[in-house]
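Summary of Year 1 activities. Much of the first year was spent building the evaluation harness for sequence design. The harness presents a backbone, in tokenized form, and records the residue chosen at every position. We chose the following record to illustrate the format because it has been used consistently in internal testing since the harness was completed.
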């Protein structure tokens, strides 16, 4: 499974060819629970919040696909704060039939990017 770089993610988002899942908590997603190490808070535009905890509650690939709401085979990029929760999420998503990749830089990198 490949990781996605910042530049690759920008290209994917510009082409609208990927579903972007933020697997952090809703409070991290909306910027309420912000890490002090990040200059900006919130989420990447276009991302959908789907906390890792909800993904892990699923007991089958069918349940994961029902939760995600996208057809099997969809290109999905997951991110979190520093790439570890999203790494785990991509494993589950791939097991459910998605072409899932991890944006390893995650919000920690995106919040620092000048043109993000």
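For this record, the design step produced the sequence shown next.
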């Amino acid at each position: 499974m490949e990781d996605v770089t910042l530049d690759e993610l920008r290209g994917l988002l510009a082409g609208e060819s990927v579903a972007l899942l933020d697997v952090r908590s809703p409070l991290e997603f909306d910027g309420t629970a912000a890490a002090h190490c990040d200059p900006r808070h919130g989420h990447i535009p276009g991302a959908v919040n789907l906390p890792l905890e909800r993904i892990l509650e699923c007991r089958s690939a069918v349940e994961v696909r029902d939760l995600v709401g996208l057809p099997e085979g969809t290109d999905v990029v997951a991110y979190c704060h520093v790439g570890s929760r999203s790494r785990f999420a991509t494993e589950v998503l791939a097991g459910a039939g998605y072409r899932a990749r991890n944006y390893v830089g995650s919000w920690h990198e995106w919040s620092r990017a000048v043109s993000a």
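The chain is about 40% helix and 15% strand. Quantitative recovery figures across the full test set are reported in Table 2.
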